[in-house]
Hints:
transmembrane; 61% helix; membrane; transmembrane helix; DltX
Amino acid sequence: MTNQKLRWLSRFFYYLLILLLLFFMYGFNDASAGSYIYNDF
């Protein structure tokens, strides 16, 4: 039981770290900014 909780927590922090890195790479721009990913659609 504890091992499963540990795996879940480690996976949660792993994906959270990836999301935070992506936010910092692309910046916290709003929809009107030039580097917004959906601007060309």
